[in-house]
């Protein structure tokens, strides 16, 4: 994955606006995108984000749905009504995984929706995709992106089915060593506590699975606010308390 840098964005003065009330999350976004402080502007509520975007349009906006004063949905809608920000790429992040949430964000004007907790590579990939689009791209670009996502989902399902067929082949070994590590094959993603929405602290990972062809990984985190200990499964992107 190519890191999103200032030079890879089409804007003459490339800058990214991040709207998230959780200050602890700001560094996570910066690390995931590969930006330093000069390329990033942070807002902790929707009102400040709106003012910043209208004052000096950004190359990319990443916004949480839960923002004080003006939430992420209303922020998207307002920015799409102004000519200066009508085509500005917007990524919405949310902890609400219900299908209606994604549809609501897209209808409000978001180009992409990412569910928390997310892998930093996912955020980077979406940002790079939006950065590579032509600046004049409008609503049609969003529809094309939705088709791309659907096609990618179908491809993923076909790959999973092919792997399953391989495992059923005669003579295929199903043995797989299980072990605990702090340097797992898949880099642990930055996670947020479902209860307090603050950043979780990574502890370790458990590697296992029923075969060596498709190993499993479970990452363990703890909430520093005392909400509990959590397990995250990268393959299913599911976070649960343990």
Your description of this structure?
By secondary structure, this protein is of the alpha/beta class. The chain has two domains: 132 residues, 3-Layer(aba) Sandwich (Rossmann fold), CATH 3.40.50.2300; 63 residues, no CATH class. The chain has six helices and ten strands; from the N terminus they run βαβαβαβαβααβββββ. The strands form two sheets. It has a five-stranded parallel β-sheet with strand order 2-1-3-4-5, sandwiched between helices. The relative contact order is 0.11.
Keywords:
Rossmann fold, disordered N terminus, single chain, 242 residues, five-stranded parallel β-sheet, alpha/beta, 6 helices
Strand count: 10
Structural class: alpha/beta
Helix content: 25-40%
Average pLDDT for all residues: 78
Quick structural gist:
The protein is α/β, with parallel strands linked by helices and 242 residues long. Helices cover 32% and strands 21% of the residues.
Question: How are the SSEs placed, and which strands pair?
Answer:
Blueprint: E1 16-19, H1 26-33, E2 40-43, H2 46-55, E3 60-64, H3 72-80, E4 90-94, H4 99-108, E5 112-115, H5 120-131, H6 139-167, E6 179-181, E7 200-208, E8 216-223, E9 229-233, E10 238-241
Parallel strand pairs: 1-2, 1-3, 3-4, 4-5
Antiparallel strand pairs: 6-7, 7-8, 8-9, 9-10
